[in-house]
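Schema walk-through. Below, the input block comes first and the output block second. Nothing else is stored per chain. Lengths vary across the set, and this one has 223 residues.
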Amino acid sequence: MAEKNLTKENRKLHEKLDPRYKKVYEDILIYIRVNTSSESHETEAALNTLLKKIIQTQREGGSITSVTGEDYRAYADSLIEKLPQRNILRLASFLALILVGLNLIFDYLIQIFFRLIDSAALSTTLVVIQFTLEMIITAALVIGFIYAIFHTFRQIAFKAWPAWKEYGLYFLIGFGFFLLYMFLNILLTSIDSGPSFEVNMFLIVLLGIILLALGILGFYRKK
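--- output ---
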């Protein structure tokens, strides 16, 4: 069966699940999506087989554990072993390009806006070391944040945590990376030595657009 048809069938089968079966399936589904190439034919085929097994068990009034066993994570891991793996670092790298590009675009467009209001020059002094380090650090923090979120999800998957505890943990991770970014950004502003040159801000915006385009292209080609 074609991948698109499998995806449509999986959605229909998903809607047929009773709540007690649906919750377990959705936990397994999210875990698989995080760990595998989510749009691969193999992944959709594995989910289709799982859904049909669960629906058959549902019709017979059996327990979901008769399909998955008592350890849902171990069952999900056994499925993932046979599927194309998601390359988290590559995914994070593309997202880093996107966010670095957006950061340059919005940061310098705002500066351009206020300079136009003040009728000021649209050029700025670019300290090469500071500018380069800022992009590298921003990209590295984005990659680290995404990797940390994926890793944390794997560790807490299938645990009976209340929503506030799970999302609170994600918030703390995000807040920690934000504080680290702010601290490093303060350190970067103190760097005013090394080669520098005047550059039109629109050129920096153009650089941001190029990075954004490269990130989006890489992200969707990978998908």
